[in-house]
TrEMBL record:
Domain of life: Bacteria
Location(s), subcellular: Cell membrane; Membrane
Repeat recorded as keyword: no
Protein name: ATP synthase subunit a
Pfam families: ATP-synt_A (PF00119)
Signal peptide: 1-25
The gene coding this protein: atpB
HAMAP family from the UniProt entry: ATP_synth_a_bact
Organism this protein belongs to: Bizionia argentinensis JUB59
Residue ranges of coiled coil: none
Protein topology in the membrane: Multi-pass membrane protein
Keyword Ion transport part of the UniProt annotation: yes
Function comment: Key component of the proton channel; it plays a direct role in the translocation of protons across the membrane.
UniProt KW keywords: ATP synthesis, Cell membrane, CF(0), Hydrogen ion transport, Ion transport, Membrane, Signal, Transmembrane, Transmembrane helix, Transport
Length: 369
């Protein structure tokens, strides 16, 4: 228990060290802060689905003050590494606020950080709204998605560390939160790993499968909180997870797997090169693409639907009045939120199940005929 308390304290200290609560004002009128037109709603939803350099909780429409948490900005410019907190941009995303670090001028435009040219005093755009006097920097910042992944990793480390310590001490019955984890670990082992990979080889891949399952599940659940996480809705994240799976089953593939893939037995020799190309494309492109796209599309669609239903209180206000439109929005959004809780688990299960299936296909021993 003492170890658990110390771990929780360390986690809280880490979160506070990376973030700082900020309140900053912009020269906006009340009307500019309100989001009440279909175009503004679509832009707001699109902004929510993207990654960002800070947590924006809410805006006081009367004062124009934005409240949220800033995150560390770490960028590589022409003058080397620059670090500061994202609050320096004052919640600006239109390139109007210039952050000066030594002789380097930085602006944030559409969630991307640019370095202005030496003599530039503002960001200039062409007809296509592309910067003409600035260039992208190499961004190593702790964005909202990066913070979510680090936070999830720490949660998993603390939770499974406690479970491992209990087993190491010879405890047959877990205590505390470990009682919740153990049935899930057994479920992944008995319902996913063993049936798809086989009794002899499943242990080798249990670490990866457990990590992927809980990593995706926790991130999906964080996405249902008011903090606006959409980590598994970032295609770069799902692509990395899919690439990990691809590398594992390609590296772990047996001689039988490569023999059947590159020179398939039982078919005419003239067709074997064609089938080899098809099989390679399937294992290298199609299977990873199906993994990354399924997770990305389902999570993104869920966030989009929930926010669209919440927006009904604004879009239907003129037709049904504030009470009816707000009631409809609340009921429908809550209904979809309960479904999204199921989807959060289901998408973690599907990704882990398909990963184990692909690995099982690669490590399967074929009988000689």
């Amino acid at each position: 228990m003492m170890v658990a308390k110390k771990s929780i304290k360390l986690l809280v200290v880490f979160v506070l060290a990376l973030t700082s609560f900020t309140a900053f004002a912009q020269d906006d009128t009340v009307e500019n802060n309100l989001i009440d037109s279909p175009e503004e709603i679509r832009a707001y939803i699109a902004h929510h689905l993207k990654d960002s350099h800070d947590f924006h909780l809410y805006t006081n429409n009367k004062t124009g003050v934005h409240y949220g948490f800033s995150l560390p900005v770490i960028v590589w410019t022409n003058d080397g590494l620059k670090t500061f907190m994202s609050s320096a941009f004052q919640h600006d995303d239109n390139g109007t606020v210039i952050v000066e670090k030594d002789e380097t001028k930085l602006v944030k435009y559409h969630s991307k950080i640019y370095e202005l040219e030496n003599n530039a005093t503002s960001l200039n755009l062409d007809e296509a709204a592309h910067p003409t006097n600035a260039k992208r920097v190499i961004d190593f910042s702790i964005t909202k998605s990066v913070f979510g992944m680090i936070f999830t990793g720490l949660i998993m480390l603390l939770a499974f560390g406690g479970l491992a310590r209990g087993y190491k001490k010879g405890k047959t019955i877990p205590k505390g939160f470990s009682r919740v984890l153990e049935p899930l670990v057994i479920y992944v082992r008995d319902e996913i790993a063993r049936p798809n990979i086989g009794e002899k080889k499943y242990r080798k891949f249990m670490g990866f499968l457990l990590t992927v399952f809980f990593f995706i599940w926790i991130l999906n659940m964080l996405g249902l909180t008011p903090f606006g996480f959409n980590v598994t809705g970032q295609i770069a994240v799902t692509a990395c997870l899919a690439i990990f799976t691809m590398v594992i089953y390609l590296v772990s593939g047996t001689k039988d797997f490569w023999a059947h893939t590159l020179w398939m037995p039982g078919v005419p020799y003239i067709l074997r090169p064609i089938l080899a190309v098809i099989e390679l494309v399937g294992f290298i492109l199609i299977k990873p693409f199906s993994l990354l796209l399924r997770l990305f599309a389902n999570i993104t669609a869920g966030h989009f639907i929930v926010m669209s239903l919440i927006a009904l209180m604004v879009t239907l206000k003129a037709s049904f009045g504030p009470v009816v439109s707000t009631g409809m929005s609340l009921v429908l959004a809550l209904f979809i939120m309960f479904i999204e809780i199921l989807v959060a688990f289901l998408q973690a299960f599907i990704f882990t199940m398909l990963s184990s299936l692909f690995i099982g296909m690669a490590v399967e021993e074929h009988d000689e005929h």
